TrEMBL record:
Its EC number is 1.3.1.88. It holds the Pfam family Dus. Its cofactor is FMN. Transmembrane segments: none annotated. Residues 395-407, 419-429 have a biased composition (Basic and acidic residues). The keyword Lyase does not apply. GO terms for biological process: mRNA processing. This is tRNA-dihydrouridine(16/17) synthase [NAD(P)(+)]. The keyword Flavoprotein applies. Residues 395-429 are annotated as: Disordered. GO terms for molecular function: flavin adenine dinucleotide binding; tRNA-dihydrouridine16 synthase activity; tRNA-dihydrouridine17 synthase activity. It comes from Naumovozyma dairenensis (strain ATCC 10597 / BCRC 20456 / CBS 421 / NBRC 0211 / NRRL Y-12639) (Saccharomyces dairenensis). It is an enzyme of class 1 (oxidoreductase). Residues 20-332 form the DUS-like FMN-binding domain.
Length: 429
């Protein structure tokens, strides 16, 4: 079988650098279409359960429609499965191999459902099984196989793990720079250093994607430059602001910045119309409520009546009800805001001071999509990052001070020793 290898596949699908991550019930068809409109160059499906996809017609109908993987609508596309059985994984992948560009094995899901089902990051210690899962796809599919992993606490172990995944046949490697334990309230920051270590120590021709700490459009270019990776994947950053993939210059004007932080009324309407147009996608109907809450996260605290109405809706609610109770009211409120005399001043996006991490935080009006800084123990991610970097600098300063003191002491001791030797030389016998 003359199957495309990693670099060949990467070039065939256009050398994508901006990638929508595979997310449980979130990176479904309508969201992929929307994200591509705002700059995404490669998208992954939600994590699909291989055994259910292979054996349950209802599950397949809920998770996959006639439009998924459509050559004109939904490509390039990587379909991701979670699995712990090579036979079911292959059966599931065979059902969609002609409607995607590659099949990905999820080795990163840290959630309780993955622990219970024994897949995702809870296979990290079972290297023989992982190797068999990937090699089974590599040897039997018409399309390439790829993999997405999390990291171990030890760099060297993570490197050996990554090498094993590539040896099994993975043609793309995506590295999420967090430990398995980093989830929910313990999410913490992704470790860019270990991702860079892997990039630097794996074969140079490896197609390598980085994932983690991408909240602003500028983070993508920073990551590409720092890691020397082929592409950057975004999950949560993309969910709260699909404009994260918009190209903006380093010296962007306020008007240029607004393209990367679109108005919530525009995004809500656009996404809603996509879901309506492709009604055969049940996964999109199911995901719509969650997407609305994320898109409107900065908006809803200021308009709690809409939040109340949104909370009442579900996948069975008619499109007319969605439009009447949420979509249209959001549009009416934002339209009223933009009719105010001082809107030019109110609608500015303001860059803060340059931070230690190499970028700046932004002040963004609540009627625009914007990043979500997940709080842990009451401290949001932006503050945790600054505190960590300051702490690192302080530790480095203390280390340098200690090294300097030790150096001075060594020189002093050497001076005393030389002086003693000279005295011994001239001393009478």
């Amino acid at each position: 079988m003359n199957k495309l290898k990693g670099r060949q596949l990467f070039e065939k699908i256009g050398c994508p650098t901006k990638i929508v991550a595979p997310m449980v019930d979130q990176s479904e068809l309508a969201w992929r279409i929307l994200s591509r409109r705002y700059g995404a160059t490669l998208t992954y499906t939600p994590m699909l359960h291989a055994k259910l996809f292979a054996t349950s017609e209802k599950y397949r109908k809920d998770m996959w429609s006639e439009y998924d993987g459509d050559a004109d609508l939904d490509r390039p596309l990587v379909v991701q499965f979670c699995a712990n059985d090579p036979e079911y994984l292959l059966k599931a992948a065979k059902l969609i191999e002609n409607k995607c560009d590659a099949v990905d094995l999820n080795l990163g899901c840290p959630q309780g459902i993955a622990r219970k089902g024994h897949y995702g990051s809870f296979l990290m210690e079972e290297w023989d099984l992982i190797h068999k899962l990937i090699k089974t796809l590599h040897d039997n599919l018409n399309v390439p196989v790829t993999a997405k992993i999390r990291v171990f606490p030890e760099r060297e172990k993570t490197l050996e793990y990554a090498k094993m995944v590539l040896d099994a046949g993975a043609q793309f490697l995506t590295v999420h720079g967090r430990l398995r334990e980093q989830k929910g309230q313990k999410t913490g920051l992704a470790d860019w250093e270990i991702i860079k270590y892997l990039r630097d120590n794996l074969p140079s021709d490896t197609v390598f994607f980085a994932n983690g700490n991408v909240l602003y459009p500028e983070d993508i270019s920073r990551c590409l430059t720092y890691m020397h990776c082929d592409g950057v994947m975004s999950a949560e950053g993309n969910l709260y602001n699909p404009g994260i993939f918009v190209n903006i210059p380093n010296d962007a004007t306020c008007e240029e910045l607004k393209k990367a932080f679109p108005r919530v009324d525009k995004i809500t309407r656009e996404y809603f119309e996509i879901v309506k147009k492709y009604q055969g996608s049940q996964a999109s109907r199911i995901a719509m409520k969650s997407h609305f809450f994320k898109i409107l996260r900065p908006f809803l605290p200021n308009h709690v009546d809409i939040r109340t109405e949104l909370a009442k809706l579900n996948a069975k609610s008619s499109f007319d009800v969605w439009e009447e109770n949420v979509v249209k009211p959001v549009e009416d409120i934002v339209k009223k805001i933009f009719n105010e005399a001082d809107i030019d001043e109110k609608d500015k996006i303001i860059n803060g001071e340059m931070e230690l991490w190499g970028g700046c935080y932004k002040k963004i009006p609540y009627w625009r999509c914007q990043p979500y800084f997940r709080p842990v123990n009451g401290v949001t991610g932006d503050k945790r990052l600054v505190e960590k970097l300051k702490s690192d600098l302080e530790r480095e300063a203390v280390k340098e001070s200690c090294d300097s003191d030790n150096s001075k002491k060594r020189k002093s001791d050497m001076g005393l020793e030389n002086s003693t030797k000279k005295e011994l030389k001239v001393a009478p016998v």
